[in-house]
Design brief:
There is one protein chain. The protein is built from nine helices and 14 strands. The chain has a seven-stranded mixed beta sheet with strand order 1-2-3-4-7-8-9, with helices on both faces. A five-stranded mixed beta sheet has the order 11-10-12-14-13, sandwiched between helices. A two-stranded antiparallel sheet has the order 5-6. The longest helix has 24 residues. About 50% of the residues are buried. Belongs to the inositol monophosphatase superfamily. GO terms for molecular function: 3'(2'),5'-bisphosphate nucleotidase activity; metal ion binding. Its EC number is 3.1.3.7.
C-alpha cells in the first residue's frame, strides 16, 4: 500500500518517535509534577526530533527538516544540561551509544529552510495535553512547492483513530496525496490498515465542533458566536493537538476551527501545526481552508503567512461555517 520510500520512512519514524514520547510521558509525568514544570514535554519534544532527524539522515541524507525545536538552550545552563542528559538517556534506548553532542547535532538538523521540498515536524503537538497525560500527537509532513503531499500523525492516546483510550496501543495515521487516509496501530507488529472517511453528516445543527481544552489556543467567545450563528445544537468535543484532525478524519466529529485571538489578530499558524493534520483530513474526504475559504499555502516559510486561521470540516458543513464566520466578522 505504501510503496514509496518516503511513506515507509515517515511511518517508521513517527511510530518510533511516538512510542518514545509515550515512554517519556509514562516515566516523567506524574500528579506530583509542579505546575508550570514543562521539563517532561521538553524531554519528549527534543527526543522525538532527534530520533526523526536521525532516521531522516540515514534514509535521505540530503533531505531538509524544518522542526519546531533547536538545541541552543540545552548547553547554556545547569538546568539545560540536565534536560539534555535526560534527552540523551531516552534517545540512547533507540540509538545505543549516542552522545549528548550527537543529540544536539540531530536536534539542530531540524533547522533547515522551509523552501522547495522539505519535511516539517512537530515532535509533540499538544504540550498541555501531554502534561495532563491526555491527547497529543507527533506530526510529520512532506511538502513540495507549497503543497503537503504526505502526512503522518502518531496519536498515542487514540484507538482506531477516533476513540479516546489513554492506555491503548495508540493510532498511526498516514495520508498520501491522491491515495486516501489510512490508520493502523502504533504497535510495530500490527500491519493492518483501515481507510478512513469523514462523517457523512450534512445537518448543520448536528455539527460536532472540536474545542481546544486550552482556551489560549483560540478565541473561545467567538467560537460560541460561530456555533450560534450556524444553529449548532450538538455538544462540542473538547480535545487538544492535531489529534483533533485524526478524529475528524475518522468521522468522530465534523468541524474544527482556529480563530484569531483578539490579543493576537496578526498571528499566523506555524506550518508544523497544520501540515500533517490538513492532508489527513483532506484525503479522508474533508475540506481544509483558512477562515476566508482560501486553501492553506505552505510556500511562505515557517508560517502560513497568506492565510488567516484554519477551518477544517467534513466538507458538507464547510460552506455553512464560512457563511457563519463572515456573519460574525471572524
Amino acid at each position: 500500500m505504501f510503496s514509496t520510500a518516503e511513506s515507509q520512512f515517515a511511518i517508521a519514524a513517527v511510530r518510533e518517535a511516538a512510542l518514545l514520547t509515550r515512554r517519556v510521558q509514562q516515566q516523567l509525568v506524574s500528579p506530583a509534577l509542579v505546575k508550570g514544570d514543562k521539563s517532561p514535554v521538553t524531554v519528549a519534544d527534543f527526543s522525538a526530533q532527534a530520533i526523526v532527524a536521525k532516521r531522516l539522515a540515514e534514509t535521505f541524507p540530503e533531505a531538509r527538516l524544518v522542526g519546531e525545536e533547536d538545541a541552543g538552550d540545552l548547553t547554556t545552563s545547569d538546568e539545560g544540561r540536565q534536560t539534555l542528559a535526560d534527552i540523551q538517556s531516552f534517545v540512547a534506548e533507540n540509538v545505543p551509544g549516542i552522545t549528548t553532542d550527537e543529540v544536539c547535532r540531530l536536534i539542530d538538523h531540524g533547522n533547515a529552510q522551509a523552501t522547495g521540498t522539505y519535511w516539517t515536524l512537530d515532535p509533540v503537538d499538544g504540550t498541555k495535553g501531554f502534561l495532563r497525560g491526555e491527547q497529543y500527537a507527533v506530526a510529520l509532513a512532506l511538502i513540495e512547492d507549497g503543497q503537503v503531499v504526505l502526512g503522518v500523525l502518531g496519536c498515542p492516546g487514540l484507538e482506531s483513530a477516533c476513540q479516546v483510550n489513554l492506555t491503548g496501543p495508540g493510532s498511526l495515521l498516514v495520508a498520501l496525496r491522491g491515495q486516501g487516509t489510512w490508520a493502523s496501530s502504533l504497535d510495530p507488529a500490527d500491519d493492518t490498515w483501515q481507510q478512513l472517511q469523514v462523517a457523512d453528516t450534512d445537518d448543520v445543527a448536528q455539527t460536532r465542533i472540536f474545542r481546544s481544552v486550552e482556551t489560549a489556543h483560540t478565541n473561545t467567545g467567538q467560537l460560541g458566536e460561530l456555533s450560534t450563528a450556524m444553529g449548532v445544537t450538538a455538544e462540542p468535543i473538547p480535545m487538544d493537538s492535531q489529534a483533533k484532525y485524526a478524529v475528524l478524519a475518522a468521522g468522530g466529529g465534523e468541524m474544527l476551527v482556529r480563530l484569531l485571538s483578539h490579543s493576537r489578530p496578526d498571528y499566523r499558524e506555524r506550518i508544523w501545526d497544520q501540515a500533517a493534520g490538513s492532508i489527513v483530513v483532506e484525503e479522508a474526504g474533508g475540506t481544509v481552508t483558512d477562515l476566508d475559504g482560501k486553501p492553506l499555502d505552505f510556500a511562505h516559510g515557517t508560517t502560513l503567512a497568506t492565510n488567516r486561521g484554519v477551518l477544517a470540516t467534513n466538507g458538507k458543513v464547510h460552506q455553512a461555517a464560512l457563511d457563519a464566520l463572515q456573519s460574525i466578522g471572524a
